What does this fold into?
Amino acid sequence: MTKSYYAGMDLDAPCGRCKQETRHRVVTITDGVPLDLICMSCNSKHKFRAEKPVSLSTPRAPRIAAPRAASGGSQFQRLMIEEQGGASSRPYAVATRFEEGQWLDHPSFGLGRVMKRLGKKVDVLFKDGLKTLVNG
Ligand SMILES: [Zn+2]
It folds into this structure.
């Protein structure tokens, strides 16, 4: 859609001084678009604004950081720092019995902390999460 403008024409445009849409007279045309207008109500000259001045202060919902569930990874990190798991770990082997609170170095899962022992199984917290291993 093309609207043709010409100098001297009247058009309705928002006037910043009148704070409303008023009748304007086009003073200058640039590239077929009104550049300067004169408000017929307040006689002020101003730039042509194609759109009504809209409030830019659109209220945006505050971004609430979703509380991240305590993942196995963060718990692992915390424990590793607290207990210096890297320093006290022993290479993992099924035959090597590990007890609660001990650290092991698993060939596939890496460093892990024994969280719980249940018979022949241990729950080990690795960086990727809790895993149950047969041990002892
Ligand atoms: Zn005006």
Remarks:
- The first helix runs from residue 72 to 83.
- The mean pLDDT is 86.
- The helical segments are 72-83, 85-88.
